């Protein structure tokens, strides 16, 4: 009997294709898969790895979707993931292998669990849904994504993180000046929701941050950022409860903050996009004289506040959403146009609408400064952090031009592998090159630097740059991490720690060894010449069996 061309030894072509795809996927996954977005390599950290499924579909961890596609990917009711970008909304049912756009559900297996139990989504489907270009380079084991040219910023008219379970409980700061700490930790908690519900200790942040301030002196996002990027915290509320006037020493951070975007002044589009992607944005207002005392600018009935004059901000809050149609008539002093941010306060649930209130877009103080905590990782992401800038970015230095070089020198305590470097981008559009010098003895060794990698940072903020090729380091070895930086609109592109005022009087400049240069050849010792430390951290893992 003649065997049809579609069969071979009892198997039809569909079965053979499935078998071939499984073998090919295994081969692809046995090698490093590279991912590029708009020609820039996407770094993956820890268990968040891309992989090829048995049907040759590239799978992307749910945690990476927000960044890659500039959208919201929120877990709803356990088994549902909701994708939101502008006016487009899509729901993915993980368990039932179906997708709902409009008008109803259709069968489509686009979500799978990886070997670590993380949910991953199909790159093919996401690219098609968001109108991105997707290509697979078989020869180089590389996936390439490209956003649509001149992709318009499309934002919904109204958005509220509470609708997606991404806002933590409202708390009450009481009589202490700790609004900044509540706002910082609330925004951090929001960035972890809805997947991970946490309550972090305000006492620990407010009292164990290294700055010369007590609970009544207030603070700002820079203090919170320094505390979290140095891994002093956060710790949980259960470990260090609020209001007892003391903090618990010797506690380890529950999570590690690795990235944060500092917003552009009053850039409402940026604020909205960050809210959708990462959760609440910490910001500040001028509270006159005290909204709780029924300020003349606060409408208690509508929980609406608008202070029409520009003042130095004195109260931190979280922006959790917005409503472009919120009536201007709801404010005591009527602004020119409708529209307001939805904000979370730290004055308990009795204030406003269960702790939330509206602030007019025209309030000249909202959004002047703020931060979004965009990169929160498990506390076991790296074994070591080498740093000398415990107070973080307290000033900037440079050569009155956008380009400069800076370096920090450290000594290993055992055999390590250098896996990442962390530093600030002092403004938007920052380009960098990272170098390494082993067995560093003096500035003459800067000429022995070995290039590691280069990259681009879009927004102002703090960033951890994972190394594409981690570097082994010997025990008790002195090494220098060097960064050449170019920040387009900054004349002083190097972030430094120094004693700038009474608040930063506790900055320890003697604990570091930092250098700077205008050309990479002539170097000056920053502690000796400028009484400062470079804000440049090194992250390592211990060599196995250490």
From TrEMBL:
Domain called Peptidase C1A papain C-terminal: residue spans: 155-376
Keyword Hydrolase assigned: yes
GO biological process, one term: proteolysis
Keywords: Hydrolase, Protease
Any GO MF annotation of the entry: cysteine-type peptidase activity
Domain of life: Bacteria
Short name of one Pfam family: Peptidase_C1
Signal sequence, renumbered to the chain: none
Keyword Cytoplasm annotated: no
Entry-linked PANTHER family: CYSTEINE PROTEASE FAMILY C1-RELATED
Listed name of the protein: Cysteine protease
Organism annotation: Coprococcus catus GD/7
